[in-house]
Amino acid sequence: MQISPEIKAALTLAGNQDDTDIDIGETALTLAAADRPGAWFAPYRRHLEKITDEVGAYAQRGPRDVPLALRHEALVQVIHKRMGYAGTEDSFDDIDAANLMQVIDRRSGLPVAIGILYLHAAAKLGWAACGVDFPGRFLLRLDTDAGRLIFDPFDGGRELTPPDLRLLLKAITGPGAELTQEHYRSAGSRGVLLRLQNNIKIRRLEANQPEAALAIVESMVMIAPLEPALWRECGLLHARLEHIAKAVAALEEFLRLSVSEQARYSTSSLLQELRGRLG
Question: For all residues of the chain together, what is the average pLDDT?
Fold first, then answer.
């Protein structure tokens, strides 16, 4: 997958922005277009605008006046019930289920991909919303001064109470698991986009497609240039593909950013070997 200069510029711009300034829907479309050369943005942008307009019209109030329950209701009524977005178990085996353009075409996809539609609309309407990095399942949270509400975009926007979350956690991690504050950890726009791309990367690696996986990791580096683990992964994939000079450059950037002494030590040893191969 060759990323065009225009897409590289857009992703690099997102990477240089503060998390709160990233347009999550537009950036997800840009990532999708990188995997669909020649795709037109316009219909998909109009669709995101339509979702936002219809959610706002359903709520019929300004951003500060909309109660928490009505925000959730408006999002679910428009995105799930009116437009038909919901997850299916087949999505977990489908690499296109993480491509937002494909998700819009099909009205189905991975939890994080469908979740981006909710997050985009909420952000455009001025509603506080974020991802919830729950084990094994991507969830969403709406926040107001009056409280918060967690829901599952994959399951038609179903609200999840603490007992629901406890049951879900036990089903995923085992009967002895108990909810902690860690399970409510929020994921900002950059984290959500990285999770989206990580799904594609994993599937590319499972299919033994290291070059395609590398292209995905490089897109992740563009939107999160200060994340050392991504530079290391990029360097390792370059080394696997015998791109020695690029591997050295990526691993040197990892060393510049990383604070993990153990990772720095193992990476330094690999770097020494790779530099020797450069001659």
Answer: 93
Interval 70-90: pLDDT, tens: 999 999 999 999 999 999 888
Place of tokens 């942008």: 45
Mean pLDDT on 139-157 = 95
Cβ atoms within 10 Å of 264's Cβ, excluding its own: 16
Domain boundaries, the chain: 5-189, 226-278
pTM for this model (two decimals): 0.93
Share of the chain above pLDDT 70, in %: 97
Distance CA 277, CA 255 (A): 19
Q: What 3-state class would DSSP assign to 138?
A: strand
The Cα–Cα gap between 194 and 220 comes to 6
Dig out the tokens for 213 from the structure. Answer: 């996986």
Reading the block at residue 56, the tokens are: 């706002």
List Cβ neighbours of 76 (8 Å cut-off, separation of 6 or more): 151, 156, 157
Residue with token string 């109470």 = 161
CA distance 265 to 136: 31
- Class of the CATH domain delimited by 5-189: alpha beta
